[in-house]
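S.,

Sequence below, as promised.
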Amino acid sequence: MKPLLAAALVLSVIPIARPAYAQLAPPNAAGVTYGHVHLNVKDIELQKKLWVEQFGAVVVQKGPLTAVKLPNMLIAFRQAEPTGGSEGTAMDHFGFKVRDIAGILKSWRAAGYQVTREFTGAEGFPNAYLIGPDQLKIELQEDKTLPVKVSGYHIHFIIDTDLAKLRDWYVDTFSLIAKPRGTIPITADAPGMNLSFQKSPTPTVGTKGRTIDHIGFEITNLEAFCKKLEARGVKFDIPFREVPAIGLKIAYITDPSGVYIELTEGYDKY
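The prediction came back faster than expected:
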């Protein structure tokens, strides 16, 4: 057999390495990793097109649930008119690391969307704020060493109450690691995601019903985790339940600032 033909046959049976778009970060010792954000959107098809074309996301449909996958997180959609954008809520925006910020900004503008600000971010790299459909605010931070086009990086709380107290609630509830992120002193790391906390000069409101309706943590053995939270006095908006139609076990709580939180088991299989 000729060498080139032999090489071609070998390559045809060896899978080519690709970014693990379905893969969430490995959980911490408490079985917690970051999972998703869930958006209220007027047009799911528009959102799917945006995330695929602008960020290289992969669409997943499981029963009635539509989501897109990116490294370190999923973004799920509910067809609903949001009561307002993400700004003004305790969960102001979420952010990504990107390999080529200039390329994404050019494509974003060409698609007719708004770039509201370009600046040097808290870690000394080029950053930008974007506004998408349904007044969704997104932050980008350039990382030229990133092995993929885009990767989930942080969720950003902007609140009018005690920052350290809220950070500590997340650290205690989900076994996160408290540490600064660049010039932002009050942040915590979950597997796959940084949680950053900054002060708002004006009152903020909860997330439920807004464009960013809720955030989500993926939990190993969710039922046992929920029992531990109940024993600590955590109140559930929706108690633990299984939803076979979407292949998830779920529960809902609300943080002290009004951010609605979904706890899931099963998103790591998406």
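Helices lie at 3-13, 44-55, 101-110, 163-174, 222-231.

Coffee later?
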